[in-house]
Specification:
5-stranded mixed beta barrel, 462 residues
């Protein structure tokens, strides 16, 4: 493989944490070939986009940024290589080059390991390089992403994929078509990687999967996620998180492991998508509102009993979620049911989206005549309800001491430390006089909270 000495690269990553993990592997490969990372695309000889296609806005944004690089000179005056990977590349393949001809490389979600050879061919003048394999082709021919070198964004945190793909086929979702069916990594392989990360100084690990709750079903005939949580929790890791959980597969065993494993942080991302049973059925979510609320109650009961969070029912665990507004056929009654559910649960955070039609999904065939302005109004009302809920949840922390993993300084104030609490809430605290932020970054420190806002907490180091 050729070396890239003297060349610079820039990565832009969109979408989910799996793309963030892939981006770290791309950085690791390019570093190993001698390329140097730079902060801006205009400073780079090679620009790599790791893309998302879950929503139309992401498609438009990516292709707009790619188009803006067409006539932008490189630092060395040579031709800039533009590579597009991720889910958009997996879905559209060569169509991307046809749409934006100055793209040099397209690589799919199974082809991350091929990027160096594709760069070599492009630099040799062999024209646009497109490699997009289907899952069944990739399994026997391509090196898994998890076996590639990596340059982590933070030395104290690591993304750790435990599985890829999804078997659920929610009617609105493109993910199973671009990430394939569920494939779990072997149990022992994951534990070995945990040991490697620990020896490298990592203190927080986030387990990744489109549906971590079904981990192991394809390999072992039964889910083993609860066992995995407990085993990793016993490894010595200080903080353990995971995303994402599908409610239909959140078992009692997993809830108990979540509550009882000390290293597992008291924060659970549990996408609900809608508070209407009629819409949930149309989405093919395979659970009802009543079942979802029962899960929330079980999680809070178990976490409180185990002494997580502040040990109270409401404060034992922070719940976050995803909600879609404007799914085809959604009525005002359906929407109001969603608002009612959000208020009843008391989410600490909710990622709210307006429905985005994705060609190839069953929901794309549904006809909906709801005016755009009605959907936008509903969206704003939901956002207001979620903000009130988040504010109320954060008030539980006022006056309490939070254990905060310091990540750096505030983007708005270099004299203010910024980090994440155990419940995954942003926490700010003044940098002690005469100190450097580098003294605190990557450490878990106690902070007493004196101010609780909607989206962040503020306090002081103890």
């Amino acid at each position: 493989m050729m070396q890239l000495l003297g060349l610079s690269y820039h990565l832009r990553t969109f979408g989910c944490q799996m793309n963030q993990h892939d981006s770290e592997r791309v950085a690791g490969m390019l570093d190993s070939l001698g390329a140097l990372p730079v902060q801006k695309a205009e400073e780079a000889d090679i620009v790599v986009f790791l893309t998302c296609c879950v929503r139309e806005a992401a498609d438009v944004r990516v292709l707009g940024q790619v188009a803006s690089l067409k006539n932008m000179p490189t630092p060395t005056g040579g031709k800039r290589l533009i590579a597009v990977g991720g889910c958009l590349a997996q879905r559209d393949g060569v169509k991307i080059v046809e749409q934006v001809p100055h793209i040099d490389i397209v690589f799919g979600t199974y082809n991350v390991a091929s990027l160096p050879s594709l760069i070599e061919a492009a630099l040799a003048g062999q024209g646009a390089q497109v490699e997009v394999l289907e899952q069944n082709q990739a399994l026997s021919t391509v090196l898994p992403t998890t076996e590639l070198p990596s340059r982590r964004e933070q030395f104290w945190h690591a993304w750790l994929p435990i599985m890829t793909g999804c078997n659920n086929y929610c009617s609105y979702c493109i993910v199973p078509y671009v990430r394939g069916r569920e494939i779990s990594r072997p149990f022992d392989e994951i534990l070995r990687e945990v040991d490697t990360l620990l020896s490298d100084g990592v203190i927080e690990i986030t387990l990744l999967g489109q549906n971590v709750n079904s981990f192991g079903r394809d390999l072992y005939g039964e889910t083993r996620f609860a066992e995995l949580l407990r085993r990793i929790g016993d490894s010595g890791i200080q903080r353990l998180r995971f995303v994402t959980s599908h409610p239909k597969d959140l078992s009692l065993e997993t809830i108990e492991a979540f509550a009882e494993t000390k290293a597992v942080m008291p924060h659970l991302q549990l996408p609900v998508q809608s508070g209407s049973n009629r819409i949930l059925a149309a989405m093919n979510r395979s659970y009802t509102v009543e079942q979802y609320l029962a899960l929330v109650d079980a999680v809070r009961q178990a976490a409180a009993a185990a002494g997580k969070g502040d040990g109270s029912y409401q404060g034992a665990v922070a719940l976050s979620t995803d909600i879609i507004v404007g799914f085809p056929g959604e009525t005002e009654t359906d929407f109001q049911a969603t608002c009612d559910l959000a208020k009843a649960v008391g989410f600490a955070q909710a990622f709210t989206f307006i429905y985005s039609r994705r060609a190839g999904t069953p929901a794309a065939e549904l006809v909906d005549d709801t005016p755009a302005e009605v959907i936008q109004d509903r969206f704003q009302r939901l956002v207001a309800a979620v903000q009130q809920s988040a504010w109320q949840q954060n008030q539980l922390e006022a006056g309490r001491v939070n254990q905060v993993l310091v990540e750096g300084v505030s983007k708005r104030d270099p004299l203010m430390l910024a980090g994440r609490s155990e419940k995954n809430t942003t926490v700010h605290a003044p940098l002690p006089a005469g100190s450097s932020a580098d003294e605190f970054v990557g450490r878990v420190l106690p902070m007493r909270i004196d101010t609780a806002k909607t989206w962040y907490l503020q306090g002081e180091l103890i």
